[in-house]
Structure formats: structure tokens, C-alpha cells
Design a protein that fits this description.
156 residues; 10% helix; 1 helix; eleven-stranded antiparallel β-sheet; mainly beta; elongated
Length: 156
């Protein structure tokens, strides 16, 4: 009987000592907006993030110079900031090559856990306002404004 009680105590102490794996997400992205200002290199990004570890939605925003007014891609954001310092983000939309659009890679990190969302190339739209002048264009994200990030890469 003593050995059964000892085994029960041992197993219950092992169970309580085993850390429970905390699922980081999904990260819910809402009101996602990204656009290049007409006839300008200025670009704007704005969205909200919710995650299980965040007490409330967090606003993330960037206004930056994309470097080239005739760009047919959205600017690279390498250190995006949010209202909560526990949340950071990056955005990479490689330029169009040989008339083949590339998908954008959008990363959101919450409490050191990076989630990735691959935006299909079809969700980034380029409008040529004046065909003879390729520098007169607009670029914007035109995909769903609300989406989930479900692919995670662990602690950073």
C-alpha cells in the first residue's frame, strides 16, 4: 500500500512540475491598412493586434519614406512599433520583377514569439494612373482587412 501511495505522490509531483505549453496565438489582425501616397514615396501602415497574452487590442502604425515615388511595392518595415512595447512587427514586400508580383511577408512578434503571415501577391495592388508615366502610380494592400496569424516560430 505504501508503494502505491508513494507512486501516486511521485506521479502527481511530476505532473505539476511539467510546464504546460502555452499556445501563443492565433494573433488576430484587424483593420489592416497599407498604402503608398499618390505621387509620393510616403507610405502608411496601420492595424490592430489581439493575442491571448495581450489584455486588449494593440494599435501598430508606421509612416515612412519608401525611398522612391515610382515604387510598385510597399516599403520594407524592419522595426515596426506598436502602442504596447511587447508587440513589434516587420513587413517585406519584394519589388515586382519581370512583371511577376511577389508575396509580402508580414511578421508580428508578441512577447518574443514571432508569428508570420504570407500575403499573396494578388493582395497588393498597383494602379498605373498614367500609362506613359510609370512613376505616377498608387500601391495598396487590397486583401482582407481582418485575418489570423497561425504560423509561429517560437521565442526570439
Amino acid at each position: 500500500m505504501k508503494s502505491i501511495i508513494s507512486a501516486t505522490i511521485l506521479l502527481s509531483s511530476l505532473a505539476s512540475a511539467t510546464p504546460v505549453r502555452r499556445e501563443p496565438g492565433p494573433y488576430e489582425i484587424t483593420n489592416f491598412f497599407a498604402s503608398k501616397t499618390h505621387n509620393s514615396a510616403h507610405q502608411t501602415f496601420d492595424f490592430f493586434v489581439t493575442a491571448p497574452s495581450l489584455p486588449e487590442p494593440v494599435n501598430c502604425h508606421a509612416g515612412l519614406d519608401g525611398g522612391f515615388g515610382g515604387a510598385t511595392w510597399l516599403a520594407y518595415v524592419w522595426d515596426g512599433k506598436c502602442d504596447n512595447p511587447a508587440v513589434t512587427w516587420t513587413f517585406n514586400n519584394p519589388m515586382v520583377e519581370y512583371n511577376v508580383a511577389n508575396p509580402a511577408i508580414f511578421n508580428v512578434t508578441v512577447d518574443g514569439v514571432r508569428g508570420t503571415y504570407n500575403m499573396p501577391a494578388r493582395d497588393i495592388t498597383v494602379w498605373l494612373n498614367n500609362e506613359p508615366n510609370p512613376f505616377d502610380n498608387d500601391v495598396a494592400y487590397t486583401g482582407p482587412a481582418n485575418f489570423s496569424i497561425t504560423q509561429f516560430f517560437g521565442e526570439e
